[in-house]
Amino acid sequence: MNFYDFTVLNAQNEEIALSDYKGKVILVVNTASECGFTPQYKELQALYEKLEGEDFEILGFPCNQFGNQEPGSDEEIQSFCQVNFGVTFPILKKVNVKGPDAHPLFKYLTQEAPGLLLKDIKWNFTKFLIDSEGHVVDRFAPTTSPTKMESDIRKLL
Q1: Which of 43, 49, 56, 22 is nearest to 157 (CA)?
Q2: What is the pLDDT of residue 115?
Q3: CATH code of the domain made up of 3-156
Q4: Which segments of the protein form a coiled coil according to its record (predicted)?
Q5: pLDDT tens digits, one per residue of 97-128
Q6: Residue 35 annotated as catalytic
């Protein structure tokens, strides 16, 4: 099993096969609109604009499991990201990223790249780096600036 075996829903409830991203380096981020790390959207967008022509993609997955910091509807989240940060990378349907109701993709990601203490995602803006063959190659803490990940991403492009 790898990253490409999963499907997700976009904000309009349309199914997206992650196999559509074959050959691209992917950064998966669990996001939130009312978090201290929310300004990372700006850095993520800058990174996306810098690398999007190089087979790179960012997939944002809003999650409300950490301090209820993503209370909005999928439509409200889309608007917030576009208006406040000019986000053009995909912000998908809100999901759970931990616990028994975690989306299967996040169960897989945390199994493949467990955190320092436990597998579970501990907070918003945890990031997973996927290579162009669908393998999880790294996990970054919420405190890791997207800007600091550029060299790791470039090694995979």
Answers
A1: 56
A2: 74
A3: 3.40.30.10
A4: none
A5: 999 999 999 999 999 998 766 678 999 999 99
A6: yes
